[in-house]
Design goal:
By secondary structure, this protein is an alpha/beta fold. It has 15 helices and five strands. Strands 3-2-1-4-5 form a five-stranded parallel beta sheet. It holds the Pfam family N6_Mtase.
Amino acid sequence: MSNNEIVQKLWNLCDVLRDDGINYSDYVTELVLLLFIKMVHENTEAETLDKHILPEGCRWSDLNSKSGLNLLNDYKQILLKLSTGKDAEGKLVHADPLITAIYADAQTRLREPRHLEQMIRSLDQIDWFSAQKDGLGDLYEGLLEKNAGETKSGAGQYFTPRALINSMVRCIKPRPGEVIQDPAAGTAGFLIAADQYIKTNTDDLYDLSDKERVFQKNKAFIGVELVPSTRRLALMNCLLHGMEGDEKGVVHQGNALGMAGQSLAKADIILANPPFGTSKGGEASITRDDLTYSTSNKQLAFLQHIYRNLKPGGRAAVVLPDNVLFEAGVGAD
């Protein structure tokens, strides 16, 4: 079974979610909360995951051994434990900040136990051995791409086409030891593509020293994402591709045009597809006081962040609408 076939089978599970009243835009978030538990199980079984293993009582085996209302209630408790690190009585279950970040405020909207049972059975029937050969990270990313093609709401609006990402990464030629940043990370497509480019050119990092490998895994990549649900998808995506980042993960939550962007360390490379439009206040507003030119145009604000945040000799590849090149006023300056 190819990855494309598996992705289609996973996407078909959205029919189950629709029957339970889940909004179309929430399909992928609802699905990946369960899917990630399954993927961690498969990676653990294949001995490809030795860190960030889910705690006892929150594993796939704890789900597929139950049925009915007990299953749904237990699943809700599992999401609570993964989200807070504690059970309903306040007892510590895990102290993994990355798992806490991935499942932050995670809740299921499923109401029918039979629908959860059906999803679990369907996930168990997938040929995970075939999926492992291509990598579960690629499978997960294929699901995000499918979501982007089917809907422009939810995470779809933050997904940059894979062909464009790969072309930009090949042009920029990232190297080991460089800090690579995406201030509008979305589901982390640029950062993952840069990581894969480096791995391809270093024999999956085996050409590097132990110290250099640790840097690549934990310090080489940093992203910022404003939307919590999209950041969740990004953190899962990175972890399934072997990218851990710091204690907050590879992608931090925040507004790159606010304090989160102002506090970022300078990077050797910046790759980005900034959101289009103008600032209209709220969390996404432009609140930085260190930009040379005051503007409500997000693309121009992101451009200022990018050239201010690059190290001397740094390089960037950015997706922008062509009208930015002819913008009057601040754009001309």
